[in-house]
Protein: Ribosomal RNA small subunit methyltransferase A
Amino acid sequence: MNDKTHLGHTARKRFGQNFLHDDYIIDSIVAAIAPQPDDNIVEIGPGLGALTEPVASKVKVLNVVELDRDLAERLAKHPTLSEKLNITQADAMQFDFGQLASEERQLRVFGNLPYNISTPLMFHLFEFATKIKDMHFMLQKEVVNRLCAGPNCKAYGRLTVMAQYYCKVIPVLEVPPTAFIPAPKVDSAVVRLEPYDVPPFIAKSMKSLNQVCSMAFNQRRKTIRNGLREILDVEELQALNVDHTKRAENISVEEYVRLANYVFDRKEKQAQQD
Structure:
C-alpha cells in the first residue's frame, strides 16, 4: 500500500484528504466528544470512517456531510454503518446546518477538517452558533493556537476574535503527523468550541464586527489609528477608551465589539438623518 492509498481509497489532494488511523488518538477524540444515544450529531467529512464508526456505535442516528462522492457512496454501502447514517453528499461550506437542528435538540458537530478550508468553514459554522451545542475539530495545530490566543501575541488575529466572540475555546489534545495516512507536513490538534448561550459582549451587527476586524488585521503592522483611519478618527478611539497607538493584535475582543457597535450606531444615526 502506498502512503496515499488507505483501505482502497486514494487520498485526493484537492479535497485536502488525510485519513486518521491511530487507534489511541481516535479513542481520545471519541472520549472528548462523549457521544450520547440521543445526540443530534453531525460529522463533517467522515472520509473512511475512522471517527464515524466509533461515534455511530454510541448514537441512534449520525448525520454526515461528505463532499467526495466516492466516499459518500462507500459509506452508504457500509455493512454496519449504513443503517445508522443520514448521508448528505454536499460541500459543507455551502450546507445549511440549521436544517439539522431543532429547538429541542441543538447540534453537536465534529470532524477532521480539511486544512485548506478549515478557517472559512468555521466562519460558516459560526453563523449557526445559536443552533450548535458544541464542536470538536481536528485542525492544524497553528490554527488551534490562533483560536486559543489572547491579545498581545502573534497568533491573535481575526479568527481569534470571531471564534472567541461566539464560543468558549478549549484545546483538547495534540496529534502528530504519524496519526494520518498520508502524513501531513504539519502537527495537528483537536479543539472544542462551545457556543455561548449569550456572548459575554453583544455585537449589534456582525457585519460591523467583521468589517472592523478585517480592516484592523489586514494592516496588522500599523497602529489602530492608521489601520482604522477610514472608519474611526483618533478622537473617536479616545472617546471609546481604545489606545490608538496599539496594533490590531493588542486590542481585546471586548474592545473590538465596542468599536463595531460605535460604527454601527453612527451608521444607523446617519441613515435616520438622511
